[in-house]
Amino acid sequence: MDQALTLLKELALEKNLLIVEDDESVKDALERLLARFFKTVFTASNVEDAFTLFKKERGSSHLLVLTDINLGSKSGVDLTCKIKKIDPKQRVIAISGTEDRSVFINSIQCGIDRFLLKPIQNDLLIESLIDILKKMDYDSELERSQKLLKESEEYALRLLTEQDQFLKDAIHEIHTPLAVIITNIDLLRMNGIENESLTAIEAGSRIIQNSYEDMTYLMKHTRIPDVKTKIDLVAFITARKQYFSCIAEVNELSLSMFVGQTNLPSIDFSELKLARLVDNTLSNAIKYSYRPSDINITVGMDQENLFFEIRNHGPVIQDKKKIFERFHRESKHKGGYGLGLSIVSQICKEENMEIKIRSSQARGTSFRYIFNNAIHLQINPNTTTPTN
User: What is the pTM of this model?
Assistant: First the structure.
């Protein structure tokens, strides 16, 4: 019993108790017994006074209601129904001198949490109080957790909104100066100017252009139609290889391309997505290659599916899954935002593509992209569909 009383004191220390009892002797006895445990004990003799006290005190501290069932013209069940209508989570212990089945049923339907019979046994009263007070603490902790979760969700949504706005602003701010740089490079070349400095400027602008295209893709890919067209993969990658050649040259790297066989089929694919696949993989290969070295591009067939592979020689990839996480970078000393391979992974999932990654000190690192079921089907115009 001593342990139970100690526990009750700990649980009731910061909580208030409302005793509702029309028998003055019982009410006084309960008040004297429980006042040493609860922060404050309020008493009432009827439903009206009890309900007024409840509305006044419920917001100031945690409040437990201990009510008799028989309160004259209105019962403790009536009081509980009024209380639960305002606060369904309010905990109520009921006391009754009757074992009438209908009273129990009405009490349960109204939401009374615990039922005690008169004459009240102190050990059962203490046990019931401890049980309900524990539930009140659990309710409070759950409410705090839900509040924290809601605040966390709101904070996360606010961060996403701010990130979205940041990307919009960054795209807007990058576009104009980048266009000016590229235009002036072309003008200088048209005037016959060609030197290492101009090549370095062009390489830098194309690196910025690739980051710009990544951010633009992130902002717009869910808002524009996913249009697939017939694409000659060899011609497409040859053009992207040419685009990255000046970046490779500045970094003392060479780009080479090998086509596994002649007359490779075309693919039905989005040019926008294919550009992100090729550009981000080439960009990473350049970024993480030893200098000087070669970067090899291969296009061919993997069983019945078309593929392209980009291989470079650089540090071994430590975690082949983690590299596809947004903002992850294998090396903190390299530039970039950690967006490229995250975009690549997203596109491959959307298009049912397979990625095979191999990375070793001896053979280097290769990314192979297999276009499952993406081969463009040639339709013979002379073929007719049989009719019944």
Answer: 0.57
